[in-house]
TrEMBL record:
Higher taxonomy: Bacteria, Pseudomonadati, Bacteroidota, Flavobacteriia, Flavobacteriales
Organism of provenance: Polaribacter sejongensis
Transmembrane segments: 20-38
Protein name per its UniProtKB record: CcoQ/FixQ family Cbb3-type cytochrome c oxidase assembly chaperone
Keyword list, A-Z: Membrane, Transmembrane, Transmembrane helix
Length: 55
């Protein structure tokens, strides 16, 4: 099955750009998430973390 998929993918022109685009989107998302976590205000983090316990 994998040989069929690999053979079919190799016949498509320009297919090699899609893994690169996927990696860039993945990397950008996690870098942005990492920056947001370390720059978030402590008051906001405490407020959001206590939301399930308020009721």
């Amino acid at each position: 099955m994998l040989k069929f998929v690999k053979g079919h993918m190799e016949s498509i022109l320009g297919i090699e750009i899609y893994p690169l685009i996927s990696l860039i989107i993945f990397f950008t998302f996690f870098v942005a998430l990492f920056l947001w976590v370390f720059t978030a205000k402590k008051e906001y983090i405490n407020k959001v973390s206590n939301l399930p316990l308020e009721n």
